[in-house]
Amino acid sequence: MILADPKTHAEWLTARTQGIGGSDAACIVGANPWKSARRLWQEKSGIVTPQDISDKPAVQFGKAAEQHLRALFLLTYPEYSCEYHEFRMYANDRLPFIFATLDGELTDAEHRRGILEIKTTTIQNARQWDEWDDKIPQHYYIQILHQMLACEWAEFVELFAHIRYHKGDEIRAALRKYHIERSDVLPDLEALEEQEIQFYKQWQNGTEPPYILPEI
User: Fold this and answer.
1) Which residues pair with 167 in a beta bridge?
2) pLDDT for residue 16
3) How far apart are CA 98 and CA 20, in angstroms?
4) What is d(CA 121, CA 193) in angstroms, rounded to the nearest whole number?
5) How far apart are the C-alpha atoms of 142 and 157, rounded to whole Å?
């Protein structure tokens, strides 16, 4: 279902404080390298103020690149059509506190509906390249699962990634596409749903989550 359709970024920021969004999911399962579940709980509970990262160069680059990468995806894969609503929030019908804002709503040649997720990142070392070899970095994968939870109508997700890296003093870029079918990730969806329900209950009843959570 459509939970909300804010018209501005400020309205969207206010609306997303009411539940669990895509960027929260990896924190909840302990897979976010930059934020713990406890820190997220403190932010949701109003104990601490979330850091404003909108002025960070990586965030600004990603925001500026998104529209161009969406257009490039559709040029490269014309079998898809795409709708885009900048601030629209979709929610799980059963669990309306689980919601997502999408980079694109896809329809394939067989009229199946899916999600377009666009990522931009900069690789600093070989280990980070390994995270992208025939798989998706875990925190991005968790976000994709969350989007499928929020959008139960989505049968698949296409992740389109723009990866920057350094070659000497030169900055180069590579594009990667990953296709995820809902039917292939059902056990992971069930596990994430359980974790998000648990976190939401902890948030609502004021129970602080532990520092270390089991891997999904």
Assistant:
1) 170
2) 76
3) 5
4) 27
5) 12
Query: What are the pLDDT digits (tens) for 11-64?
Result: 877 777 789 999 999 999 988 888 888 998 888 888 988 887 778 888 898 999
What is the distance between the alpha carbons of residues 173 and 152, in angstroms, rounded to a whole number?
33
Q: What is the pLDDT of residues 150-161, one digit of tens each?
A: 999 999 999 999
Residues facing 98 on adjacent strands: 20
Distance CA 199, CA 37 (A): 8
Q: Contact, 148 vs 189, CB < 8 A?
A: yes
Which position has the token pair 């390249």? Answer: 129
* Domains present along the chain, CATH in parentheses: 2-49+56-205 (3.90.320.10)
Per-residue exposure over 155-166, b if at least 16 CB sit within 10 Å of its own CB, e if not: bbbbbbbbbbbe
What one-letter code names the amino acid at 117? E
